[in-house]
Amino acid sequence: MTMTLPFDNSYARLPERFFARLDPAPVRAPALLALNRDLALRLGLAPEALATPEGVAMLAGNAVPAGAAPLAQAYAGHQFGGWVPTLGDGRAVLLGEIVAPDGARFDLQLKGAGQTPFSRRGDGRAWLGPVLREYLVSEAMAALGVPTTRALAAVATGEVVVRDAMGRPGAVLTRVAASHIRVGTFQYFAARGDTEGLSLLADQVIARHYPEVRGPLELLRAVVAAQARLIAAWMALGFIHGVMNTDNMAVSGETIDYGPCAFMDAYHPSTVFSSIDQYGRYAYANQPQIAVWNLAQLATCLLPLMGAREAAIEAATEAVNGFVPLYQAEWLARFGRKIGLAAATPEDQPLIESLLGRMASERADFTRSFRGLVTGTARSEFAEPLAFDTWAPDWQARLAREADPQAVMAAANPVRIPRNHRIEEAIVAAVEGDLSPFTRLSAALADPFAAPPEYADLEAAPRPHEIVHRTFCGT
Ligand code: AMP
Ligand code: MG
């Protein structure tokens, strides 16, 4: 029996050169590892049905549901600044788009679904580690209120995947997204001089994400604004994406492609985790300027749709430059709330920057220091607490003008983030067959602003020997 889902596949109705049609490649022994009940209900899907053998077969890629139009999307991209004209879904198959009961449209994609025409030298598969990592981090981001792709399910394949000359358990992630259209998707058509393709793609993006928008310039402005908000949200959580290649930037404004991403423990603006980011291109503090770089690539792609070249270049440049004031305002609002200011103004910026500077030089834990402003424990996060004590009087003086700074801070500063050492602990246990650390971490991250005593251990910063310095690509 095949499952029936409310599919309406607008991307699959685009011309054939947008993708390669193919079914996911079946796996040997599918077994459900995790199912996101709340997300299933949000989509209008019955969690019970997804957990049946038929449901699991679909989530593993062994059965294609009725109404699906499976395909691998074509895209290009700049990887670490280097141009790659053809990337595409090398290990992911889009089953189709489902329309939720409230009319919202979501891509349903299987990641790790086998080889596609875009696989190059890759095996098209994923292993358990990156699948659980993306599950945990993307769901934590959603719970923290950050626009993101979601994780509906993780299944074990019963197959072995070889990574770094090691056999590892294979897995498939079911990813849900507003769409999987990337800056790199626009680059794919622009690089081929395919103006008709660009136009169709822009129309699809407008229809799906920015229905109020008229024309390519307004579309660019909308994407710029969405990215400015998104990157500011990352920064306010100490989140480092790790691979902000243009193919990993969704035009919807959702965080996408969780690879070597990480939340900082100790704060430092130059923090890098990714093992392949040798020069720190995607370091924490570089993220806004990298976003601008990527948006400039998008702008370049849209020029052929924007009429007279000189005027188009001028308008597109202005639209991209619009990132800076939007980002700065969003950054100020978010960091202002983190220190208890309901509506920070530019005069408050030095106060915030002074705190961050002290946190950096005293290796203060990012999440715990800000949460510590709520609980009164912030000073103990600083290697030299005096660095906090000499900042606090100005802060207190400023708070005297606020109505309810405690409530503002409590809502802006999470208690829990998915810490690297906890994610790794959960993955190591899962590889050994014990899913309980993963399940517990997952449950704890669903409500990251609450502090129930049973999750107190997950609030702790890593002890020196537990610190994770390097994270790896999700391949
Ligand atoms: P990522 O770094 O995960 O954004 O992936 C970059 C590109 O490599 C994309 O085109 C992926 O589809 C492709 N890719 C990553 N891992 C694999 C794999 N195991 N097999 C085939 N293609 C892959
Ligand atoms: Mg990618």
Describe the structure.
- This protein is α+β, with helices and mostly antiparallel strands.
- Among the domains are: 11-177, no CATH class; 332-412, no CATH class.
- 40% of the residues lie in helices and 13% in strands.
- The chain contains 17 helices and 12 strands.
- The strands form 4 sheets. Strands 2, 6, 7, 8, 9 and 10 form a 6-stranded antiparallel beta sheet that branches.
- Strand 9 and strand 10 (166-177) form a beta hairpin.
- Helix 5 packs parallel to helix 8 (287-302) and helix 10 crosses helix 15.
- The longest helix has 21 residues, at 215-235.
- It is globular and about 65 Å long.
- The protein starts with 18 loop residues before the first strand and ends in a 30-residue tail after the last helix.
- Adenosine monophosphate (AMP) binds at residues 87-91, 118-119, 122-125, 243, 247-248, 257, 259, 473-475.
- Magnesium ion binds at residues 247-248, 257.
- ATP binds at residues 88, 90-91, 111, 123-124, 175, 182, 257.
- GO terms for molecular function: AMPylase activity; ATP binding; magnesium ion binding; manganese ion binding.
- Its cofactor is Mg(2+); Mn(2+).
- This is Protein nucleotidyltransferase YdiU.
- Keywords: ATP-binding, Magnesium, Manganese, Metal-binding, Nucleotide-binding, Nucleotidyltransferase, Transferase.
Number of helices: 17
Radius of gyration: 22 Å
List the ligand species: adenosine monophosphate, magnesium ion
Count the beta strands. 12
Strand content: 5-15%
Residues in helices, as a percent range: 40-55%
Enumerate the spans where pLDDT stays under 50 for 5 or more consecutive residues: none
Oligomer: single chain
